[in-house]
Amino acid sequence: MTIRWGIVTSGKISHDFVNAVNSYPGDKGDMVIAAVAARDKSRAEEFAKTHGIPKVFATYADMAKSNDIDVGYIGALNPDHYPLTKLFLDSGKHVLCEKPLCLNLKQTQSLINIARNKNLFLMEAVWSRFSPSYIALEKEIQAGKLGEPQFLEVNFGESIVTVDRLIKKEMGGSAILDLGIYTLQLAQYIFKDEPMKVTAVGELNDEGVDLVDTVILEYSGGRRAVFNVHSKLKLWNKATVVGPLGRVTLEAPFHFPDTITHVDGKVEKFPLHKSSLEFNFHNSAGLVYEALETARCIREGLIESPRMSHQESLVLAKLRDTVRKQVGVHYDVDDQEF
Fold first, then answer.
1. What's the DSSP call for residue 216?
2. 309 has pLDDT over 90
3. Hey, how many other C-beta atoms are within 10 angstroms of the C-beta on 9?
């Protein structure tokens, strides 16, 4: 069964996603990039030429309704995630949507309800979950080498405060939605259940968008996650999980690391494949793993991935809403029903 991808928008992350898939030297299992659409058709045509994509659509609706694709990859700006994902689900297409899946919990629940009612696959593209380093970390924890994890520390900062999509409210700007989702998802990956208490402080710009966040998540049994998210400064960008028997570190960039330091001090590397085309973002070759998981799930008739489930997306959306409320970030869609 060939899984045919339709790429929604022709921006930087879409370029990296397609490049990661097309350049992957391993078994892709009959997975192809079949089409692309963008608001500006000329940009879509240029994108198609760069990546050797056979079909270009003038509108997203035309692609969603076509019989040329099976699954849409949504690489649009945050405010467009909900309407575009809904468009493709309503048209009977599976969807892999970039994180954050939606701007808030209400939108997230709405999309999940649609996907479940239509028996279609839907996943928030938290690519970290499919990193070989993350899987190695999971195996080490399951083997009991740390004991039960008790503490997680993450610092994630990049000097990207001039990037419009991060700082402008109309573009869904937010440090917690852009960088912070990686810290939140890692805490949930480690501790599994929802935190009992969330404490967050932040720094807002003149538009009411958070540029800096410090968050503490308190879980049952005294377990705790502490992280700093910074869009004005480059930070350590490592994550350390600590248990009574030792610690494991996901080396920088922790959100998709190619190196992990195990509890015994052994350093293990997971090199990523190369491409003749340049990537826009660090370690973007790893985007192929979420594509492979999406294709696997669709072939097996699953509507969600066990590694990044609907419930996980609901919890993450709830946590993002909680942090935003505490630091004072409000979107117009927060006042709407979906």
1. E
2. yes
3. 25
Kindly report the pTM of this predicted structure: 0.97
Alpha carbon 84 to chain centroid, angstroms:
16
**CA atoms of 165 and 78, how far apart (whole Å):** 8
Q: Are strands 259-261 and 246-250 parallel, antiparallel or unpaired?
A: antiparallel
Q: How far apart are CA 178 and CA 185, in angstroms?
A: 12
Domains in the chain with CATH codes: 3-128 (3.40.50.720), 132-269+309-332 (3.30.360.10)
DSSP string, 64-85: HHSSS-SEEEE-S-HHHHHHHH
Residue 184: the pLDDT is 98
For 176-215, the pLDDT digits (tens) are 999 999 999 999 999 999 999 999 999 999 999 999 999 9
Helices (H), the chain: 12-23, 41-51, 60-65, 78-90, 105-118, 132-142, 164-167, 175-178, 180-191, 288-299, 310-327
Cα Rg of the chain, angstroms: 19
Interval 43-89: pLDDT, tens: 999 999 999 999 999 999 999 999 999 999 999 999 999 999 999 99
Between strands 31-37 and 3-8, the pairing is parallel
Dist. CA 238–CA 153, nearest whole Å: 8
Cα 128 to Cα 125: distance, rounded to the nearest angstrom: 9
